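On clarity, I found the account of how folds are encoded harder to follow than it need be. For illustration, here is how one protein appears when written out as sequence plus structure tokens:

:::
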Amino acid sequence: MAWFRNKRKQDRDDEAAFVEHVFVHWEGLYRYALRLTGDEHAAEDLVQESLTKAFRAFDRLREDTNYRAWIFTIVRNTFLSRARKSGRELPLEDPVSVVDEKGSDLDHSLARPDDGWRHGFEDEVLAALGELAESQRTAVVLCDVEGLTYEEISFVLGCPIGTVRSRIHHARRRLRSTLAGYANARGYADAEQAG
């Protein structure tokens, strides 16, 4: 009986640690999954499946694990795995350019009004993000929206940190150029020059 009590306590401790280190990122994971899938229900399923996988592996992690990067990577890999299993071909650089079961190209533009991704963004910003190459958009969204470090993004995307820096640099430069009129009209350009 003592073994059973110890096991249950360990299970509760593992659950508490999982919630503290991994589940706390649920909102960011959902936004990222929504960006990958373009569908609220599919994003919820993707996050749930990813969290289930993560929980099963949680007790095998090292203490110095970067949990946020680890769980974002699981979401990305689960998405890619699902896409491969469904017969969709995905280039690694563009994980959201997919074709649906009817052979139609799915529009996963950030500017879609019904995708739940819009919160906090005006149409001009969404359109500018939508014009970026997917690899740049993913990197800049993970950095500037989700707050991941370059090292975490490198881990999530499976590419060198120099590639991450380059993608973010080029994305920001293009956004700055594309959104110059928008920024001037709202007084943001003055704030940038002052600070």
